[in-house]
Structures are given as structure tokens and as C-alpha cells.
Amino acid sequence: MPDIIQLLPDNIANQIAAGEVIQRPASAVKELLENAVDAGADEIKLIVNDAGKSLIQVIDNGKGMSEIDARMSFERHATSKIKDIEDLFRIKTMGFRGEALASIAAVAQVELKTKRAEDETGVFLEVENSVVIKQEPIAATNGTSIAMKNLFFNVPARRNFLKSNAAELRHIVDEFVRVAMAFPEIFFSLSSNGQQVFHLEAGTLKQRIVQILGNNYNAKVVSVQEHTDYMNIYGFVGKPETAKKTRGDQYFFVNNRFIKSAYLNHAVMNAFDEMIAKDSFPMYTLFIDLDPSQLDINVHPTKQEIKFEDEKIVYAFVQSAVKHALAQFSITPTLDFELDASIQSLDAVSKPFTEENKSSATSSSLYSTFTKKNQAHFVESKSELKHWKDFYEPTKKVSSTELQVDSNETKKDFDFLDAHNSKFETENCFQLHNTFIILPTHNGYYLLHQQNAHERILYERFIAAVDGKPMSTQQSLFPVTIDLAPADAVLLNELLPDLQHLGYMLEPFGNNTFVIQGTPADVVQGNEKVAIEKMLEQYKHFSNDLKYSKREKLLRSLALQQAIKPGTSLTEKEMKGLVEDLFNCTTPNITANGKPTYLEFKKNELNKMFGR
Ligand code: ADP
Ligand code: MG
């Protein structure tokens, strides 16, 4: 038998290793931005085309590389950042493994231009499949520009795995924002397909927060700052009134590295305690600095998790620091000197919502949900109904075997026709626990769940709206602006055309801000902002679900979010409307997410239960 072990050729080994570091365009963005930061740049520009699939370029004015270093930088385990094992415990730079450039060169076509201040000329390198294919001296400004083209051009399987441009761009924006947030003293810009998305002048952390997360945080943040020998924490949390229904504006950095930590998030939420509603999320941008020896550096740097030597101390520290900051803010009257005129006028636009408006809006909206709108709906379905009825009329020659081969769906329609044949006693229906509706029928009763039923109705109505006639919009009396986290803004932009069909009139207003010009007639005026935030939050719950299209996720999210909730008392008219609408649905018995909308109880079965 011959020996069978072989060394993999370098380019294959590199491609395999690259898989760990570069999973998608956003991972390359992160690595390149971090290299630019490590190079001491104070100006960093990111350019992407096709969400990074065709081009990712980072231009910095950092220290540049010598000719030899430029060539070396693409080798695996080539790094200027650690020299011996001891250095590992003092890591202050963002990178240190020397894997990023090697990985990038293994899966893209790379062009590097770099020049150090002390050199006359710069170096130009072209690398493909980990091999330098061109090198020449070049006139250049100080710093480095790395352009990677056609990511995964040589690994089609990975290229095919990439998501839509909108989704990949969202990831890129996330990474960009995380780095930009951590280094407010550096100028950052991002342009995508020739359009500038971010232009972030160097400034203070607070300015950076406002630049990125929106003006509504100006004068609405509380400074957090505690210093001890063990660790420091600093940064800002949003005042309780800025808490949103959607997560997003939440950033934790440990030694300037963005991390995700449910544990530390919990510590902050605990500090907010009773100050915000249960289902809302406060903004926070917090930096924790501690001795790198107190961190587990073996956690892979491309992962965003972190392990602290002593987790409990960190938790307690974060919690008390935020609590302390919030307590100070609530006893000291806050004079918002920095509030600028443009924002003041925006605030004035979103007029206070009085109890009076609320009750009138509520009743009118419910009214239209269950009556006005459905009148049209009702007539429409009625005519369809007649048609079905004709079709299944026993006089028509539809043999019973023919009916049986049909799916359950048909059977259900049949039941429904049967039930709808005025055998519902809608005038006798009543509500139980403000959650259920009991609907007597000629031979038993139906028990409806009001939210589930309404979800089904809305879902079908939304489908009809996106496929055909758009829903009517109610113009906002006072257009409200909504400020979103950058990634949420990208998401909302993506959803705009469908939302328009669903009656939402939204206009991008620059800087992750949108103006809400109108909402569907059913949405309570004054709640537009919350409705949209909640919809986005709900959408994100579905967003990892590959089996649904963007539109499907949107429809489900809206249906879930707009459906009347348990605890809402309904008038007789509203109950009737709900029942009629439900049984006019194509699939009345379950919600889009598969929950039952009603249960049927038959008199004879009930009697059986009682031994009769
Ligand atoms: P690491 O950042 O872990 O050291 P990389 O593969 O990202 O590994 O980069 C390899 C080396 O190339 C770095 O250590 C650095 O010396 C050099 N380098 C990379 N990008 C830049 C840049 N933008 N400016 C200057 N030097 C750079
Ligand atoms: Mg690096």
C-alpha cells in the first residue's frame, strides 16, 4: 500500500483557512477597517459596490507598508502586531493573528497600494489566488488602499451562498458602524454604488452617537463613567423616553472591540429597571476597558463573544455604573443646552398625544377595522361565495368520490359554507375574558381567539393589497419622523415598496431618518412610530427564516403586530365584523404561523362528555 498523506497546496490551504475568517463581504470589511485603525489612520474611507460582492475598498492615511512588508502581509501568520507569546497578553491592536489579508487574497482579486511617509514612492501589488501576479512602484499618498474585487470568484459554492445585496449591505453597515462607533476620533465614510451612505467627521463619542444613531439622541443621552483599578466603563445610555420598541441601538465594546453579550445586556436592562416598558429597548453605547489578561484571548476574534476572567464583577460593575448615571440624571434637572433649533421644530411637530385624541382615534380605528373597510370586503367575498356554493351545489353533478380526492382544504371550504349558511348566530356571540369570542351555531358553538382570528384576517387582507389593489392610506395630520439604527434603516428602505401597498407612506429623509406621511386607516394615529418599530422588531424575528420571502416576512410581521390583542374589549359590532371577516377568509382556521383561530364544539360531543 502506498502512503496516502499529502500536504495541501498553499492556495487550497489558504482557501480553507479563509473560510473561517471571511464568511461574507461584511467580514472582509471588518478586517480591512480594523487594519486601517491599527495602522494609526485618522481618515478611513470604505467603498463598496454590489454590497461588497464586486468591490470592497478601504483607503486609509495610516502608516503604510514598506515594499517587503507589503508582500509579506499576504502570507499566513504574517503580522507586525505580536512577536512572542507574552505579547498575546498585552494585545492592544484590533488584529493580531495575521490571517486576514492572507484569507482575503485566497478568495478575491486584491489590489494593494501603499506608501510610508519616509518612502519616495509607494508599492502597487496585485494578488490573485494567493499569488502576487504584479508588482510595481507607484506614486501614491501616504497610507494604504486595499481593493478586493469579485469576492469568492474562485469559490462558486461560497459565492452562491451569499444573500441578497440588501441583506449583505445590512451586514456591512453593521460592521462599519461598530468600528466607527469605537473610534470617534477617526473620520469614516462609507459609499455604496457611488452613493455616500455615511460621512462621519472626527469628534467626540457623543457626536458620533448622534451622527450614527440620529439627532433624536442629541440632549437625550446620559453619560456613564466609572473608573476603578480593575476596570473602567464609559459611554452613554439613552434617557428612558428614547427607548424603542426595536432593539438595535445597543453597543458594547470591550477594549474597543464590539462584542455581543446577553449577560452584560441584562446588566444594563436591570439598571433601567422600572424606568422603561418591558418590551422596549434603551439605547446604549458603552465601553469597558480592562487588562487584556482578564479576558480569554482564545475566543476567536471574528466571533463577537467574550469571556471574562471574572464575569460577576463585570456584571455588577456595569449595572451599578448605569444605575448611578440614571439616578444622577433623574435628580438633576436637565437643561438641554445643546438642543438645536431644527430638532426643536421636529419635536414640536410630533405634538403631544392627549387622552382625548387617543380615545377618538381608537374608536374610529376599530370602527374602520371592523366595519367600513370590511363592508367592501364582505361584498366582494360574498360574490365569490355564491360561486363556490354553485360549484358544490349537490344538484351539480359532483360525485362524492370527486369531492373526496380533493384536499382537506376543499373539505374545509365545505364546512365553512355549511357554517356560513346563516347557521352562525352572530347576534348571540359574546366575549370571554376580553380574549375569546363564543359564537353559538345551530348545533354547538365556536370558540374564537380574537388575536389569532384577526391575524388571519389581516394577513389575507395584506396579501390582497400587495398583489393587487393597494390599501388606503390615512394622511398623518402631523407627520412624524422616525430615527433608526443604520441597519434598521437599510431594512426599512428595502421594505418601502411593499409597505406603500400596505398603506404606509414613508419617505427617506437622510441620515437613517424617515418621515411618516401616512399610515393604513386601521393604525391608530399617534402610534405610527411605535407601529413601525414593532414591525421591524417582529420582522427581525423572522429574518433568519430562510423559507420565507422578504414580503412574506413583512406580511406576517404586520399581521402579528396589528392584530387586536387579548385584553381588548370588543363591542358587539366589532365581534360580528371579526367573525364575518374570519369566515370570509380563504383559510379561516389557522393563522399564517399555524396557530388555530377557532375551535369547534358540537352539541352531541358536548352531550357525550356529560354522559348524555
Ligand atoms: P493582523 O492584522 O492580524 O496582523 P492582517 O492579515 O490583517 O493581520 O495584516 C497583516 C499585516 O499587514 C499587519 O500586521 C500589518 O503589519 C500589515 N497591514 C495590513 N493592513 C495594513 C494597513 N491598512 N496599513 C498598514 N499596514 C497594514
Ligand atoms: Mg488585521
Written account of the structure:
With 612 residues, this protein is an alpha+beta fold. The chain folds into three domains: 10-200, Histidine kinase-like ATPase, C-terminal domain (Heat Shock Protein 90, 2-Layer Sandwich); 205-328, Ribosomal Protein S5, domain 2; 405-612, Ribosomal Protein S8, Chain: A, domain 1 (2-Layer Sandwich). It contains 19 helices and 20 strands. The chain has helices at 10-21, 25-38, 67-72, 100-107, 156-161, 165-182, 205-213, 262-272, 311-331, 341-349, 355-392, 400-405, 408-420, 450-467, 486-501, 528-542, 550-562, 572-583, 603-609, and strands spanning 43-49, 55-60, 109-115, 122-128, 131-138, 143-149, 187-192, 195-200, 221-227, 231-238, 250-254, 257-259, 284-290, 430-432, 436-441, 444-449, 473-483, 505-508, 513-520, 598-602. Strand 14 and strand 15 form a beta hairpin. Helix 6 (165-182) packs antiparallel against helix 15 (486-501), helix 11 (355-392) packs parallel to helix 18 (572-583) and helix 14 (450-467) crosses helix 18 (572-583). The longest helix is centred in the middle third of the chain and has 38 residues, at 355-392. It is elongated. 37% of the residues are buried. Magnesium ion is lined by residues 31, 34-35, 95, 100. Adenosine-5'-diphosphate (ADP) binds at residues 31, 35-36, 38-39, 60, 62-65, 73, 78-81, 95-102, 144.
